[in-house]
Amino acid sequence: AAAAAEQRREERLRRFRELHMKRYEACKLNSQEVVEEDKRLKLPPNWEAKKARLEWELKVQEKKKECAARGEDYERVKLLEISAEDAERWERKKKRKNPDLGFSDYAAAQLRQYQRLTRQIKPDLEQYEQLKEQYGEALYPTSDSLLHGTHVPSKEGVDRMVADLEKQIEKREKYSRRRPYNDDADIDYINERNAKFNQKAERFYGKYTAEIKQNLERGTAV
């Protein structure tokens, strides 16, 4: 009986030591995780992207060195490693990208307008082939060519041009530039915030105070 009791006591002590070691390991891991989390919180918000970018640049530099050591062109090797699916995905992404970066000057805006209008043109290829057969090399003028009076546009072409111009005029009329101030309106505000407040007050209570304002303007208010 005494030996059995001693054995049970040793078993309990062993389990207690195991639990103590597990608790110690858990506390140690928790402390390490707290330190790592504190480091991550102190890093800038885009640190992960910067880190990935730096790792990618290091890989590119190493690849360039390897290609230079073998006497190969890095750009050619890079293109050979790109799969057809990645190339198609990259082309689709380039097509979806909006090249319009906003207004820079009037010349750039005019160029964008010209490119947009030319992309919308649908040429008549049958008529183009007929003109090629009719005029031959004269269809492609040079600096010595006399163009005045040599070409008369068709009625369909004139109608297309008129329809396109009318569409541009209609679209331009719908565009309205934001005007923050009305020069003809009465100035009853001291700053932008006060003007907004007066507009809200007029919207909600204008119909109740219209008569009072008219009496004040006429000088008949009691």
Automatic annotation (TrEMBL):
<dbReference type="Pfam" id="PF08231">
    <property type="entry name" value="SYF2"/>
</dbReference>
<comment type="subunit">
    <text>May be part of a spliceosome complex.</text>
</comment>
<keyword id="KW-0507">mRNA processing</keyword>
<keyword id="KW-0539">Nucleus</keyword>
<dbReference type="GO" id="GO:0071013">
    <property type="term" value="C:catalytic step 2 spliceosome"/>
</dbReference>
<comment type="function">
    <text>Involved in pre-mRNA splicing as component of the spliceosome.</text>
</comment>
<comment type="similarity">
    <text>Belongs to the SYF2 family.</text>
</comment>
<dbReference type="GO" id="GO:0000974">
    <property type="term" value="C:Prp19 complex"/>
</dbReference>
<dbReference type="InterPro" id="IPR013260">
    <property type="entry name" value="mRNA_splic_SYF2"/>
</dbReference>
<protein>
    <recommendedName>
        <fullName>Pre-mRNA-splicing factor SYF2</fullName>
    </recommendedName>
</protein>
<dbReference type="GO" id="GO:0071014">
    <property type="term" value="C:post-mRNA release spliceosomal complex"/>
</dbReference>
<keyword id="KW-0508">mRNA splicing</keyword>
<keyword id="KW-0747">Spliceosome</keyword>
<dbReference type="GO" id="GO:0000398">
    <property type="term" value="P:mRNA splicing, via spliceosome"/>
</dbReference>
